[in-house]
Amino acid sequence: MSRLRIRDAVAADRDLIADWMVAMAWETEHKRLDPPTVQAGVGAGLADPAKARYFVAMREAEVAGHETIAVPAGTLMLTREWSDWRNGDWWWIQSVYVAAEHRRQGVYQALHSHVAALARATPGVVGLRLYVERGNAAAQRTYRAMGMDDAGYDIYEQGT
Predict the structure, then answer these.
(1) Tell me: the pLDDT tens digits for 40-59?
(2) Where are the domains of the chain?
(3) Which of 14, 22, 77, 158 lies 20 to 30 Å from 40, alpha-carbon distance?
(4) What CATH code would you report for 2-145?
């Protein structure tokens, strides 16, 4: 029997999360990221809660009837955006990744439910947001199943 436990990420998770981000960028957008840059970025986020907050889903299972082992199954990152319209913070769900062997087993649902409960319990948080690629129908179905709606925005960017 196995169960999922969500925990805050720690500095020792940096390399695993960075590896997952590199894999996610390739799987979803066919973008090759520079691993040292991603490691530095994840490290900076882990070190500074004003930048980001990471969570790791751990799959716990009993071995030989008494010993429990836990293996990392997925992650997500939260960032904050101030809304003057609502006088509060939106929490942005970003950098979602579930390891291939743990997909379709409730890992994202557990991560999402965890951060949604934290958001409801945190004064000043007005809701959760995320962005998803237009062509990623599977992710869109997952997010709708979690009670999220298309907010009607497109995202534009300009690099420096």
Answers:
(1) 999 999 999 999 999 999 99
(2) 2-145
(3) 158
(4) 3.40.630.30
